[in-house]
Write a structure and sequence with these properties.
Elements (H helix, E strand, L loop, with lengths): L2 H6 L1 H29 L3 H11 L7 E3 H7 L4 H13 L3 E5 L7 E5 L1 H21 L8 H17 L3
Antiparallel strand pairs: 1-3, 2-3
GO biological process, one term: response to stress
Protein name: MarR family transcriptional regulator
InterPro entries: HTH_MarR-typ (IPR000835), MarR/SlyA-like (IPR039422), Tscrpt_reg_MarR-type_CS (IPR023187), WH-like_DNA-bd_sf (IPR036388), WH_DNA-bd_sf (IPR036390)
């Protein structure tokens, strides 16, 4: 019996272990596919997606908002944004008022890349993740993950 099985119980330990293993493998595989086919990381893809969301003002987001959206340290986002800037997919502009506030903006090239990448990427997401869930399981999983996220960030 493993330590986790003793402390969590066998079923809980198996579920936790499988969740970690699956999420890590899925993230790694999606990242590898994006790097191989398009030269961007999965994190960079998610940055582009967030900048392209209809709720963003003209494809603009400040660095701290991007870090919050991706649940990633600002320094890690800075590195990823630097890579996207070098490739011309996003640009940095100074925020109005506070000059320390840096805004990241999606470029035309970034939008074109996203339009090119998204169909195949989302097909993989559908095939490797969504289609593995039976009727009702997708909604149950979504609700469970939302509760977990709220618990982690301290919002009930």
């Amino acid at each position: 019996m493993t330590l986790e099985e003793r402390l969590l119980g066998a079923e809980e330990a198996r579920a936790w272990s499988q969740f970690l293993r699956t999420s890590q493998r899925l993230e790694h595989r999606l990242d590898r596919e994006l790097r191989t086919a398009h030269g961007i990381s999965h994190t960079q893809y998610e940055i582009l997606v967030n900048l392209a969301e209809p709720g963003t003002e003209h494809g603009n987001l400040c660095m701290s908002d991007l870090a919050d959206m991706l649940a990633t340290a600002k320094s890690a986002i800075t590195y990823q944004v630097n890579q996207l800037v070098e490739r011309g997919y996003v640009e940095r502009v100074k925020g109005e008022g506070d000059q320390r506030n840096v805004i990241v903006r999606l470029t035309v090239a970034g939008r074109a890349l996203l339009d090119d990448v998204a169909p195949a990427h989302l097909d993989r997401v559908r095939r490797w993740f969504i289609e593995q869930l039976g009727p009702g399981q997708l909604q149950d999983l979504q609700e469970a993950l939302e509760r977990t996220c709220r618990q982690i960030v301290g919002r009930r």
